[in-house]
Design brief:
The chain is an alpha+beta fold. Helix content is about 15%, strand content about 30%. The protein has six helices and 20 strands.
């Protein structure tokens, strides 16, 4: 199943997609698509309901919100695509490189991305996001890791490269500015994405294709990442793992091609939809 969250005068509502362009309202069944709904089996129970009697409505008529309400934490994986590591001049990492983003930077799939004051190095990174559905700590193996994945969505790990690379310390500094993680348009449950390790992934800036790859180019695969992260921190329902970005980021161009106010980004992953965000100045 594929879930959306959308704005409404009475408060955020939840929908299930009946096609890429239409949905039915299921707010009565899942008022908030967040940690509790992911953990208590709510989504499985919705699958047992007959939604055919509900009137579909066009997705274009609603303002989409992040499909997961109030993510707990965002764990990110750096240099996790072979060709991206190559364009960055780095060797493929023997173990996953981890850093964090502030969950407060998550915005919807149609929100504006705001360039920080004085920035001339704001960059894009389309990524497959894993959504955790069960507590995970010290998982035994990758089979156990698969069982805690609730589903998948699109993330854009927007990055301010000067703060990330030139201001000392760790990468986190360039990753958590407000609006720096557009998320969605929808959340697809795991059983609806049978082969997440083989999905087309792409990003365009002003219609120009900048990133075009497959999740099959990941150095460390999806279940390995979940298993590995569980060895050094506890994962909880509603947590997000951004699994890395393919080649073609602005920093990798010669000279670099960073974002400017007025640019429009389209990020897309096979089976997970497309998000479209405009770049604005702060």
């Amino acid at each position: 199943m594929r879930f959306i969250r959308f704005a409404h005068p009475d408060g955020p509502r939840t929908g299930v997609l009946t096609s890429d362009t239409s949905y039915v309202d299921v707010t009565d069944l899942v008022p908030t698509l967040g940690a509790e709904a992911l953990a208590d089996g709510t989504l499985d129970r919705i699958a047992e309901h007959d939604l055919a009697m509900r009137a579909p409505a066009p997705v274009r008529d609603v303002d989409l919100l992040p499909p997961i309400d109030r993510p707990g934490k965002i764990v990110c994986v750096g240099l996790n695509y072979a060709k991206h590591a190559e364009e960055s001049g780095a060797l493929p990492p023997a173990e996953p490189i981890l850093f964090m983003k502030d969950p407060a930077c998550v915005v919807g799939p149609e929100a504006d991305i705001r360039i920080p004051p004085g920035s001339a190095a704001t960059d894009y990174e389309v990524e497959l996001a894993i959504v955790i559905g069960r507590r995970a700590l010290y998982l035994a193996d990758e089979t156990a890791a698969r069982s805690v994945i609730a589903g998948y969505a699109i993330s854009n790990d927007v990055s301010e490269r000067d703060w990330q690379l030139n201001r000392g310390g760790q990468w986190d500094k360039g990753k958590s500015f407000p609006t720096f993680n557009p998320f969605g348009p929808w959340f697809a449950t795991a059983h609806g994405v049978p082969d997440p390790g083989n999905l087309a992934i792409s990003l365009r800036v002003n219609g120009e294709l900048r990133q075009s790859s497959s999740t099959g180019d990941m150095i460390h695969g999806i279940t390995k990442l979940v298993w590995y992260i569980s060895q050094c921190m506890e994962l909880s329902p509603g947590d997000i793992i951004n699994t890395g970005t393919p080649e073609g980021v602005g920093m990798g161009s010669h000279p670099p091609r960073y974002l400017a106010a007025g640019d429009v980004i389209d990020a897309e992953i096979e089976g997970l939809g497309r998000q479209t965000c405009r770049i604005t100045a702060t």
